[in-house]
Write a structure and sequence with these properties.
It is a single chain. The protein is mostly helical. It has one domain. It contains 6 helices and no strands. The longest helix has 38 residues. It starts with a helix and ends with a helix. The model has no long low-confidence stretch (mean pLDDT 88).
């Protein structure tokens, strides 16, 4: 009985890690994909490594690292492509941080746009150009969030599938 109860608690914890990973893709207090990956590892461990092969776990770990790397790079690429200045980039970062507290979770995306806009105007760019740069950062941020969500949702799929198998 205790063994079964403990097993159920471990499985619930693994599922909670996956769900937290999905939530933190949108609200980046903690990195979402590593939490989702931890849920997969926990399920594999609890089920004696039978639901997933070693190759699958290595691929998922590599994808997680790739998504985290791209999440850092894509908004910067969007900013560069649309001609962001140093002030625009810093404004974007500060706007994201402020957005976490002002209007979570969407404040992060809106904060990045508004911060970039303010930074670009402060650097002397015209309003139209500043809006264009803000848009580039906004799109880059959304792409990053989308990639993290895709990873974490696929981890949820494999977690549920691993529970059934």
């Amino acid at each position: 009985m205790i063994e079964t109860t403990l097993l159920i608690l471990w499985l619930i914890l693994g599922f909670a890690l996956i769900v937290a990973g999905i939530a933190f893709c949108i609200m980046p207090v903690l990195p979402g994909p590593p939490l989702s990956f931890a849920g997969l590892i926990l399920l594999a461990w609890v089920r004696d490594w039978t639901p997933f092969s070693g190759r699958f776990l290595i691929i998922m770990a590599g994808l997680m690292l790739f998504v985290l790397l791209l999440d850092s790079i894509v908004p910067l690429l969007g900013a560069r492509k649309f001609g962001a200045s140093r002030q625009g980039l810093w404004g974007s970062v500060l706007g994201m941080l402020a957005g976490i507290f002002v209007f979570p979770p969407w404040g992060i995306i809106i904060g990045a746009f508004v911060g970039a806009l303010i930074g670009e105007i402060a650097s002397g760019k015209e309003r139209k150009e500043a809006i264009r740069v803000g848009w580039g950062i906004f799109v880059g941020t959304l792409v990053g969030v989308g990639m993290k969500l895709a990873y974490s949702l696929s981890a949820l799929f494999f977690y549920i599938r691993g529970m059934i198998v």
